[in-house]
């Protein structure tokens, strides 16, 4: 990430960096706009308590010569957390799926710290020479949370309570000091709307008619399915809503199938990884087995549930001038979605579209 070390967002020379943050249940996505354009980082939402030091345990030169990706080690409050890929090899993953997880807790903090470091890692390593990092954070929350005024305010209050301060922590032995100055929240799929309509400077780049026209966003995440409609700069409540129908359903179906058929227990993250492989295979006591048929069945079941929810809210969707599909689930279920809604579009880089759009919108709302 050498290019990030030289951006014009250095803390000692300019104002705060504006970061868009999408704290998804499947992965935390962060984005900011630097001198060389948009920068995005993704961290799988997998956290455990432990360490990666295994002493002298090894197989020597036998087996794989290329070492598997190690989880990041995030240390704060005298505890080290393992975050991201490979956590299950060293610790039992914590897999919280409730909306309270979006407010506070060591798992959320560890994921936030790791995502920020992944976004600006090289610059963080130079901070002793360049000074402190100052950031503004625009956070995307599920539609169900934002639509409930009491829950939305409580979530924002909790986030500001721990986030808007100075943070000191360690990532893989590197010291990081981070000053968060402002925290705001938006609905997650609003980020996709901004990614679709704004440029990196936060300017509207589509024609004015697109700003007035009815636009619908279907955001399929790991634990959430958000429908979001806007017209003339306002949210259309009739076509906006949310549910917990997401890619988690696919993972749970795979978990049940594997447990029943092979006696193997998988974590949600491990099952989700199988769902995204071209040739999903599993090693068991009975030998290596292919899971293509089981994965396809699980994906079809999830796609049917998603389409049923969308149809209930939107019908055939022909009332929208633009229909946008986003989120990791949109990529996984693309064929079914576009068969049902042929006038729809799956956004490029759908997994990170919300974070990117929130970063672009942040340029309009945070003080320069």
Task: Describe the protein's topology.
Layout: H1 2-5, E1 17-23, E2 27-34, E3 37-44, E4 47-49, E5 72-76, E6 79-83, H2 106-125, H3 127-130, E7 133-141, H4 143-147, H5 149-163, E8 166-171, E9 174-187, H6 188-197, H7 208-212, E10 215-220, E11 225-231, E12 234-235, E13 241-243, H8 247-262, H9 268-275, E14 281-284, E15 287-290, H10 292-314, E16 322-326, H11 328-332, H12 334-340, E17 345-346, H13 353-365
Parallel strand pairs: 1-7, 7-9, 10-16, 16-17
Antiparallel strand pairs: 1-2, 2-3, 4-6, 5-6, 5-8, 8-9, 10-11, 11-12, 11-13, 14-15
Helix pairs in contact: 6-13, 8-9, 8-10
Keyphrases for this structure?
Nucleotidyltransferase, domain 5, globular, 368 residues, alpha+beta, disordered N terminus
Low-confidence stretches: 1-13, 122-131
CATH architecture designation: 2-Layer Sandwich
Number of helices: 13
The tally of strands reads 17
Give the overall form. Answer: globular
Description of the structure:
- The protein is an alpha+beta fold and 368 residues long.
- The chain has one domain: Nucleotidyltransferase, domain 5 (2-Layer Sandwich).
- The protein is built from 13 helices and 17 strands.
- The chain has helices spanning 2-5, 106-125, 127-130, 143-147, 149-163, 188-197, 208-212, 247-262, 268-275, 292-314, 328-332, 334-340, 353-365, and strands at residues 17-23, 27-34, 37-44, 47-49, 72-76, 79-83, 133-141, 166-171, 174-187, 215-220, 225-231, 234-235, 241-243, 281-284, 287-290, 322-326, 345-346.
- Strands 3-2-1-7-9-8-5-6-4 form a nine-stranded mixed beta sheet. Strands 10, 11, 12, 13, 16 and 17 form a six-stranded mixed beta sheet that branches. It has a two-stranded antiparallel ribbon with strand order 14-15.
- A hairpin with a 3-residue loop joins strand 1 (17-23) and strand 2.
- Helix 6 (188-197) crosses helix 13 (353-365), helix 8 (247-262) packs across helix 9 (268-275) and helix 8 packs antiparallel against helix 10.
- It is globular and about 60 Å long.
């Amino acid at each position: 990430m050498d290019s990030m070390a030289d951006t014009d967002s250095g803390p000692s020379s300019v104002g705060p960096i504006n970061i868009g943050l999408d704290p998804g249940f499947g992965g935390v996505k962060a984005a900011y706009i630097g001198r060389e354009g948009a920068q995005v980082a993704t961290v799988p939402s997998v956290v455990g308590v432990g360490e990666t030091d295994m002493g002298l345990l090894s197989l020597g030169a036998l087996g794989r010569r290329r070492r598997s990706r190690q989880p990041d080690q995030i240390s704060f409050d005298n505890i080290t957390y393992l975050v991201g890929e490979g956590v299950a090899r060293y610790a039992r993953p914590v897999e919280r799926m409730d909306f309270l997880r979006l407010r506070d807790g060591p798992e959320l903090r560890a994921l936030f710290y790791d995502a920020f470091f992944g976004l600006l890692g090289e610059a963080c390593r130079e901070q002793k020479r360049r000074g402190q990092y100052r950031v503004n954070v625009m956070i995307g929350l599920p539609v169900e949370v934002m639509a409930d005024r009491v829950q939305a305010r409580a979530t924002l209050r909790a986030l500001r309570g721990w986030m808007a301060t100075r943070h000191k922590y360690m990532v893989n032995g590197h010291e990081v000091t981070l000053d968060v100055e402002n925290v705001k929240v938006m609905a997650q799929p609003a980020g996709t709307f901004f990614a679709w309509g704004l440029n990196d400077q936060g300017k509207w780049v589509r024609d004015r008619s697109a700003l007035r026209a009815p636009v619908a966003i279907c955001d399929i995440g790991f634990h959430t399915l958000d429908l979001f409609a806007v017209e003339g700069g306002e949210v259309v409540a009739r076509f906006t809503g949310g549910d917990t129908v997401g890619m988690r359903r696919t993972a749970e179906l795979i978990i049940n199938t594997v447990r029943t058929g092979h006696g193997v227990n998988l974590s949600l993250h491990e099952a989700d990884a199988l769902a995204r492989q071209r040739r999903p295979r599993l090693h068991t006591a009975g030998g290596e087995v292919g899971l293509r048929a089981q994965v396809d069945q699980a994906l079809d079941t999830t796609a049917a549930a998603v389409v049923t929810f969308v149809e209930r809210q939107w019908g055939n969707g022909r009332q929208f001038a633009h229909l946008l599909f986003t989120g990791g689930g949109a990529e996984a279920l693309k064929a079914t979605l576009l068969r049902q809604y042929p006038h729809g579009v799956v956004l490029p880089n759908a997994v990170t579209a919300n974070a990117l759009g929130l970063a672009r919108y942040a340029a309009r709302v945070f003080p320069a």
